[in-house]
Amino acid sequence: MKSDKRLDDERIGEEEGREISHAAAMPSLEISRSVPHHDSCRMATLKFKGPSPYQQKRPKPSDTDLEYAKFLKDFSLQFEGTTEPVPMALFGVGRIGTVHLSGLARNPRVELLYIVDEVCDKFDDIKRYWKLENTQFLSGKESDKVFKDPRVQAVLIATPTSTHQDLITRALAHGKYVFSEKPIAESKEGAINCYKQAKQAGKVLFSAFNRRFDPAFCNIKQRVRAGEVGHVHTIKACSRDVQLPSIEYLRTSSGAFHDTAVHDIDMICWMLGEYPIRVSAQGSAMAPEIAELGDYDTIFITLKFPSGTLGLIEISRHSSHGNDQRVEVFGPKGMLICANERPMSGIESHIGSEGANYIPTYYSFPSRYRHAYLAEKEHFLDIVQGKAKPAIMGHETLAVTKIATACEQSAKEGKFVDLTWGPEDLPPE
Ligand SMILES: NC(=O)c1ccc[n+]([C@@H]2O[C@H](COP(=O)([O-])OP(=O)(O)OC[C@H]3O[C@@H](n4cnc5c(N)ncnc54)[C@H](O)[C@@H]3O)[C@@H](O)[C@H]2O)c1
């Protein structure tokens, strides 16, 4: 990427690899002479004063400052490949559909041709709010129009889980790229069929495991893979959310293991680069309404990996203190922790004798994973435009489904479940 001249000028010295000489780093004689002797004696640090910062090598932004990296990209106005936006359709504008709409409506890489939802009385408000004059709004019954429109290159599916397989199948049959919310289908066989169809169609079916695009989790993964803690002995993920889904949602969600634990299972396997050979799980339903559905809202999962690593996942749908999402990786060289992220993380108050107080953590997934949701869509657009290979492969999604099914079986039957893997199932390096 070419950087902008103005920014180049700011980083004076850096690009030229200019060495700062020892002499230049010393305070100039002129300054020392101009300060009376008795004052300069008290100015104990004056001797460390270097040349003007304009003459020094400027620090580079850390690669963890993704917002600055984005700014540099926007500022440089440079791009690779096509500038044409991807003509798309969005299915479902409920909770996660709204998260995705906010990313699509403001994205110059997207031309949002259609929005489809079963609830049509919100269409006028959506159109007005997002200024979508050129987007057509359709009911679920009219969705064929989207599939038959040759302009539509890609669809984003954010509808209830029970509808995914049908929409994916129809989209692929008409040669569209598909971004689908997890899980891909309600059954393993259904998901396998979807991926087979994608292969036949020569299109990508992308499963939205958004945590793989979370900057903090990416950082932990890179450091685990770089061996910072050595061979991982234990890995723990805590995943609690404040936002209890509606009972209607839970009825078609495929159960907590497939609806929510899949995120943690995928994240742990992605960080470790291996799949478990033995799992166990226990679940409880603290909410009677969830117990009535035969589902769980509180879950513990243990995983044993072929390398000996042990994993632990804790899930709760009842977190009154906000979205509580943490990861800890422990090995012989030390420990990596991803603590809770919070808005306005710099604010700390010490009022009276209350002790230190911090701003609460993010409330729920739309805010905690905001960056991840944006990044996964950018990645999908890169795939559609031929600029990237999918970061999440079909066999990885199927492996996660297999593990979640084994965990669910363990919770129901109260026993360990062993898993075997063929070479074709294994995660990428
Ligand atoms: N990745 C994540 O973090 C995350 C978070 C929440 C939900 N999800 C997944 O997203 C999916 C949707 O969850 P949600 O919480 O947004 O549900 P929701 O009930 O809030 O929204 C679903 C929307 O789809 C619409 N709809 C139903 N059938 C449709 C059809 N055939 N065609 C078009 N629209 C239809 C509904 O009217 C509703 O507006 C689920 O599969 C869930 O597992 C993922």
TrEMBL record:
Compositionally biased residues, Basic and acidic residues: 1-21
Residue ranges of domain GFO/IDH/MocA-like oxidoreductase in the record: 219-336
SUPFAM superfamilies to which the protein is assigned, alphabetical: Glyceraldehyde-3-phosphate dehydrogenase-like, C-terminal domain, NAD(P)-binding Rossmann-fold domains
Record GO biological process: NADPH regeneration
Assigned GO CC terms: cytoplasm
An example molecular function term from Gene Ontology annotations: nucleotide binding
Keyword Oxidoreductase: yes
Region named Disordered: 1-31
Superkingdom assignment: Eukaryota
InterPro entries the UniProt entry points to: Gfo/Idh/MocA-like_OxRdtase_N, GFO_IDH_MocA-like_dom, NAD(P)-bd_dom_sf
The keyword Oxidoreductase is annotated on this UniProt entry: yes
Keyword tags: Oxidoreductase
Domain Gfo/Idh/MocA-like oxidoreductase N-terminal, residue spans: 88-208
Pfam families, per database record: GFO_IDH_MocA, GFO_IDH_MocA_C3
Family: Belongs to the Gfo/Idh/MocA family.
The name this protein goes by in its record: Oxidoreductase YrbE
Lineage of source species: Eukaryota, Metazoa, Ecdysozoa, Arthropoda, Hexapoda
